[in-house]
């Protein structure tokens, strides 16, 4: 299967390189597991968010803004 695993992929990238990576991932037809603290990047490329909290996984089927809205309602 087509799976990319990326750990903090935007670290040490300049803005044009980040934009190229965003575009490449947007066009990628496989799956990608991305761990990142770059919220802007995640909002551009993610369509599913997995939150790990207190040894529990919570899956949010949507983009980063959807995740934030659901998290806000939960709290």
Topology (SSEs and partners):
Layout: E1 3-7, H1 15-27, E2 31-35, H2 39-45, E3 49-53, E4 56-60, H3 64-74
Average pLDDT across residues? 94
> Looking at the structure, what is the overall shape?
globular
Terminal CA distance reads 37 Å
Task: Determine the strand fraction and express it as a percent band.
Answer: 25-35%
Written as H for each helix and E for each strand, in order along the chain, the element string is EHEHEEH
Enumerate the spans where pLDDT stays under 50 for 5 or more consecutive residues. none
Number of helices: 3
Biggest sheet details: 2 strands, parallel
Counting helices, strands and paired strands, the structural category is alpha+beta
Across the major sheet, the strand order is 1-2
**Total beta strands:** 4
Helicity level: 40-55%
Radius of gyration from CA coordinates: 13 Å
Q: What would your notes on this structure say?
A:
This protein is α+β, with helices and mostly antiparallel strands and 75 residues long. The chain contains three helices and four strands. The strands form two sheets. The chain has a two-stranded parallel sheet with strand order 1-2. The protein has a two-stranded antiparallel sheet with strand order 3-4. Strand 3 and strand 4 form a beta hairpin. The chain is globular, with a radius of gyration of 13 Å. It starts with a strand and ends with a helix.
